[in-house]
Protein 1
Amino acid sequence: MRRIIPVSSGKGGVGKTTFAINFALTLSRVAPTVLIDLDTGTSSIRNTIDVPVGKDLYHFFRKGAALDECLTTLDGRIDPDGTYRNFAFIAAPRHAIDEITNLRDDLRWRLLHAINGLDARFIVLDLRAGLDANVVDFLPLSNSGVLVFTPHHPAATLAAADIVKSLLFRKLRIIFSEGSPFFRSLPDTSHHRMVTELLDAVEDVYEENLPNLDAFLVDLHGALGDNPYLRAIAWVLRSFGVYFVLNMFNGVQESYETSIRPFVESLRRNVSGKLTLTNLGWVVQDPRIHEANCRRTPILLQQPEERRTADPDPVRKELAALESSVLGLPAMRRERPRPVNLDELQRIDPSCTVDRQLEILERMYRDHGDRQVRENFAYIAHRALHVMKHLPPESFGLPRLYTPLEIFDQLRV
Ligand SMILES: Nc1ncnc2c1ncn2[C@@H]1O[C@H](COP(=O)(O)OP(=O)(O)O)[C@@H](O)[C@H]1O
Ligand SMILES: [Mg+2]
């Protein structure tokens, strides 16, 4: 099963590119993987991997090259054993080119189609920071892709929560837009204007009466009783998966207090307490990661260091541990909208409360707290693979990218 996995962060400097590179390298040991540099203004991937780049996105956009002609693979100098022979990347242009940095709709859709046509099992997208169409159009509608944040950059953590908010509102607006399958299925459209105006009010954080979608649901229930809008919103919230990775992890309590808790609280306050959150793991803070980047040989491409403990096969052990415990992974579900009652609306899903996140982090730490960078990536990749294997395709990443016109068909609520 093919999967496109976008990696994003609200702001730069959290280690998104570092994560995307090493994550893609790890996945490539399982199946052919392509990493695409969509942070086209800064081109950091080519500057972090020391191999000659033939063609890049410049050739795709300006010279009529096919996207698969723009793949760069590792050479024998940087990957002498061929461990990562299933890894390739598509570099952004060598220098910023406005037209490619700020893609027009038609160019972005051309790229989207070309990405869908790539022959790879996993396609990892290193997105730029921020929330414009160059980011949002590459994100799924039913999950967050991988959000990266770090205890060292609190503003970026809140910005990551804003990505989730923006995806959810975007999805609701598409579902509720006139002409959508949902709209056409409504027996009565007399409340449509009121509902969409209320939605605007919820998105507007300065509107204190309606702080989040949970309050909106309760209000809507009070006004209209059980109704298709309510069911659609409740379904969107219940089925949306938030996945995150903590970079520069600096201990359970510290990381929890300075990043996970603010992240979850921001989501709960401004979006909803009903979202399912999955911590995919963490990457320790380690100066060797930074040195490796500076030497243009990502940490996973460096010769492994001696292990501190005699451990024959940590990856296999992690797999076994995963099989015996799903560590807060969301349960398999393929729900459709169903009647919603007030009681249910007011209940907060215990699986995503702040306390549960601490518990999960503590359990994860108990199981792999002594692990080094290399195992951190193996662990995250195994958790991601576990999700891909056991949950429906739209739960994590996306099987293919959709242009806004195709999205309608995707959202038959
Ligand atoms: N886990 C880590 N430990 C130490 N330094 C890191 C780690 N992850 C990233 N860095 C360093 O942090 C800086 C930002 O990383 P980068 O991957 O470029 O972030 P982004 O893509 O989010 O802007 C870089 O200098 C990188 O070498
Ligand atoms: Mg980057």
Protein 2
Amino acid sequence: MTATASPDLSVILGSLSLHNPLLAASGCFGYGTEYDDVADRDNLGGFITKSISLAPWKGNDPPRLTEVSPGLLNSIGLANMGVEKFANEVAPQIVTGKSKAIVSVACKVMEEYEEVVALLEDVEGIAGYELNISCPNVKEGGMAFCLNPNITEELVARVRKRTNRWITTKLTPNMTSVSQGALASEAGGADAVSLINTLVGMAVDWKSRRPKLATITGGYSGPPIKPVALAKVWEVWNAVKIPIIGIGGITNWKDVVEFMIVGASAVQIGTALYADPNLPGQIAADLREYMRNEGVGSLSELTGSLKTDRGAMVGVPA
Ligand SMILES: Cc1cc2nc3c(=O)[nH]c(=O)nc-3n(C[C@H](O)[C@H](O)[C@H](O)COP(=O)(O)O)c2cc1C
């Protein structure tokens, strides 16, 4: 890289190339066009749509979003318009520009994932799918799909048969061994894994003694979950060969670099987009500055570059 050249932020995740490693996280960027009046979508390497299911879902009753200090607690319940309306009316609008459109899929039973993906195969320009397997599997009594590695592997393998497009699975941190879910995803044929989804959290009003969410507990996101997410990414980096997309509490370029050092090839930004939808543009500019200052020729050289004398000490108590 010459002193005057603008650093190249591009990254490659198997068959998916991104012009930068910044993706908008599912549920934090609508279906992809909602922010078009206020932010340049092309500042993102890509974006993950709100999770789509086979039939429309109305989600949970309100209140289903509350700010906690710092962070967000949500129980949206994967409210969405369903695949038919999405495929016919929305998807054709989102596959423009250099930011790659990745569709998040969340379903109640395994067969529905296959159906949703099959229905989206005719929509041109979709770069890939993020299978949200952190959500409840109705056939298994509401247990999240990814908590059972056999189910994870079968689900991914079934979807793999329906598409040649790039597939990542979205894993929950609310499990004992996230690497089991990642290994099962890899065995099923996933091209990448995305982690983490929200942590289980709760907020209570001390005066009324009432929970702040109608569902009582919800999904906790934002800066405080970053250390948990870094540990999970590091754990998975030591387990699988497929690329990892790091998610959790990212608000600035240093967070991105930290996620890459522990093993991520790209990252997703969620809660922070609610405060500033233009944040990815700022982070991309800051990453270029960082690469210039530190002499980093390619972001991929950061991935898994953690310096440690102890190797993979996963789960070691303080
Ligand atoms: C309001 C809200 C809605 C979300 N909806 C989804 C969703 O539909 N599908 C999904 O996979 N993740 C969803 N998430 C989780 C995020 O994609 C992300 O994994 C999580 O918020 C952690 O990242 P963050 O700390 O940067 O927000 C949602 C998060 C929030 C805050």
